[in-house]
Design goal:
The complex is a heterodimer.
Chain A lengths: L1 H8 L7 E6 L8 H12 L5 E6 L35 E5 H6 L12 E3 L1 H9 L3 E4 L1
Chain B lengths: L2 E4 L2 E4 L14 H10 L6 H17 L5 H12 L6 H7 L4 H8 L10
Antiparallel strand pairs in B: 1-2
Helix pairs in contact in B: 1-5
């Protein structure tokens, strides 16, 4: 598939910096799962994609989730597949993480923890920021 | 939702023939789905189908074809992790056809 796309575009296409900012808890609303699907689809277009987890969005990455009781799919494991999709820029807001009593060891994937100044700078550097 | 009959059991599929419930999958169902896809299952086909089921179990998604190819190359070697090998086994697309036979949903991130 990617070979075909390369042929159609005649080599390098336009690469933009896309940032998806996840701010909501994983379950209860569809935002987290939908954002994850959009991210996986965006990988097909060879864009520069980064993900931010802030506020309750930090809970999307928490280890040891069991969703049996609420009868929804546990998609937390899917964040571990992102590496295979060449999406490796995952950022967590330091204050949000600490306010919830969490550390990097509680998260299912490797992330870069940023303070609010560094996060603001990173956001300012994007072409497109999508808040989920 | 359409239903199909496999070995005396009624199984729900979506409009494109993918299983609705992952748990309905077994070898007989896989053989049925393969027949529908006109794929003659060999050990090489099963290797890919089983790989996909393991991938789904680990990550809870059906991989896009590019990701599948790369993951197979890593686990089973470059002679199997390439488009030519996989398209010979599954002419209408390894991710699409092999996922269907493996009882998985249609791959995310596939156009």
């Amino acid at each position: 598939m990617s070979d075909m796309m390369d042929d159609m575009e005649g080599g390098e296409g336009v690469v933009k910096k896309f940032m998806f900012v996840n701010r909501k808890a994983p379950h209860g609303t569809i935002y987290a799962l939908e954002a994850l699907e959009v991210v996986l689809i965006s990988a097909a277009f060879d864009q520069d994609v980064s993900l931010v987890f802030a506020d309750d969005g930090v809970y999307q990455l928490i280890k040891g989730v069991n969703t049996k009781g609420i009868e929804v799919k546990d998609f937390s494991k899917t964040y571990r597949a992102l590496e295979g999709y060449d999406i490796e820029k995952l950022y967590v807001d330091k204050d949000s993480m600490e306010a919830r009593g969490l550390t990097e060891d509680d998260l299912i994937v490797d992330v870069t923890v940023l303070d609010s100044a560094a996060m603001a700078a990173l956001m300012a550097d994007q072409d497109v920021v999508i808040s989920c | 939702m359409p239903m199909v009959e496999v070995a005396g059991k009624s199984i729900e599929v979506d409009e494109e023939g993918y299983l609705t419930n992952l748990a309905d999958w077994n070898q007989e169902v896989a053989d049925y789905l393969a027949k529908e896809e006109k794929v003659d299952m060999t050990d090489a086909h099963w290797e890919v189908v089983n790989f996909l089921r393991e991938y789904y179990d680990e990550y809870q998604i059906a991989p896009a074809v590019r990701v599948l190819t790369k993951a197979i190359a890593k686990k089973l070697g470059a002679d199997k992790g390439n488009n030519k090998y996989l398209y010979e086994l599954f002419p209408y697309g390894p991710a699409k056809q092999a996922c269907k036979i493996a009882g998985l949903p249609k791959p995310t991130g596939c156009i």
